[in-house]
Write a structure and sequence with these properties.
Blueprint: H1 3-12, E1 19-22, E2 31-37, E3 40-46, H2 52-66, E4 74-78, E5 83-87, H3 94-100, H4 105-119, H5 132-146, H6 151-166, E6 174-176, E7 185-187, E8 197-199, E9 206-208, H7 211-218, H8 227-241, H9 245-272, H10 283-294, H11 300-309, H12 315-320
Organism: Poseidonocella sedimentorum
Protein name: Aminoglycoside phosphotransferase domain-containing protein
Pfam family, one: APH
């Protein structure tokens, strides 16, 4: 989207004269511009390379509102050019609030889990399904970008992972936000109930097992969640979702493994092909999540294949990931 097109959108929405300041982007291709107009604030989100990002964001925002949750209001849109002018929730992201005020860790974590339980109270929407096939396909990013393996060498791990996921404990599928972690939830204490959790970065939403977003929050690539907090939220979620803790632990191990493999691949790709080496520092934590998940008996074959194919994120291996990949 050109600067002229951006200004046309802002002028049409009455924000043409607003003060503008760039915001740090995330691990995607989206760009963000913070706008100030007196006491009012808004954010211009653009994804000109893939306008479907804006379309999906707007659609999922509606699904979340229908479920009594709190996505940003969309103030104006140019969906054909991949641009949205959205409400600015501010900077009180859960991760920062918890780090700065440890007493908030439990109430904010409880709130985050209550949001997921609310999603489980509604039928799954008509979105693509995150099934075993999809999970195994996405996990291949680890083979390609983290370990420089081709599809043939990844095949045994793919088969083992797909088989394990196909045996996941049954549960009604739900709306899955996919990147549900403490930097994508913003504290809005002035609101009542679940509206205190401002939700962002949900344009990649799918339909999935309810354990997926739970493991995204508890196995955060960017921060350590204390074991006692993890145990508390597993108990609360199991009770609220009508699952046994054993069933939930099985599902968390399965989807945590698939997610950790995908994230290792995404972070390696960002470092090698995206010029973002800062993500390499997060890999040891993600690998730790992977190892804990692989300790579950249901993942014995997957664990065998991972250990045979993927190197640990040693300092030498992380350094090697700073160089361009052979398969960009």
């Amino acid at each position: 989207m050109s600067d002229t097109a951006e200004m046309d959108l802002l002028r049409a929405a009455g924000w043409g004269d607003a003060e503008q300041s760039p915001m740090e982007g995330d691990a995607s291709t989206k760009a963000f511009l913070r706008l100030r107009r007196g006491a009012e604030r808004a954010i211009l989100m653009t994804s000109p390379a893939d306008p479907s990002v804006a379309v999906n964001f707007a659609h999922v925002a509606g699904l979340l509102r229908d479920r009594g949750l709190r996505p940003p209001r969309i103030l104006s849109a140019d969906l054909t050019r991949g641009a949205l002018l959205i409400e600015d929730f501010g900077d009180r992201v859960f991760a920062r609030q918890i780090a700065n005020t440890p007493a908030l860790a439990q109430p904010l974590s409880d709130l985050a889990i209550d949001v997921l339980l609310r999603l489980g109270q509604h039928p799954a929407p008509d979105l693509a399904h995150f099934d075993a096939e999809t999970a195994a396909d996405q996990a291949e990013l680890a083979a390609t970008f983290y370990a420089d393996l081709d599809a043939a060498r990844y095949a045994p791990l793919r088969a083992a992972l797909k088989a394990a996921l196909e045996d996941a404990p049954p549960a009604e599928p739900v709306l899955m936000l996919r990147d549900y972690h403490a930097e994508n939830i913003i504290h809005l204490p002035e609101n009542p109930g679940l509206a205190r959790a401002g939700l962002i970065d949900f344009q990649d939403a799918m339909v999935a097992h309810p354990a997926y977003d739970l493991v995204s929050f508890l196995q955060d690539a960017r921060r350590d969640v204390p074991p006692d907090m993890v145990a508390r939220q597993i108990r609360r979620f199991a009770e609220g979702a009508g699952m046994t803790e054993a069933e939930l632990a099985h599902a968390l191990a399965l989807f945590g493994t698939a997610r950790a493999l995908r994230i290792l691949g995404v972070f390696a790709r960002l470092a090698r092909a995206g010029g973002k080496p800062k993500y390499l520092a997060l890999m040891p934590r993600v690998w730790g999540h992977l190892e804990r998940n692989l300790a579950h008996p249901a993942l014995a074959q997957v664990a065998h294949e991972v250990r045979a194919l993927l190197p640990r994120p040693s300092p030498d291996h992380l350094e090697s990931l700073r160089s361009p990949c052979p398969t960009p």
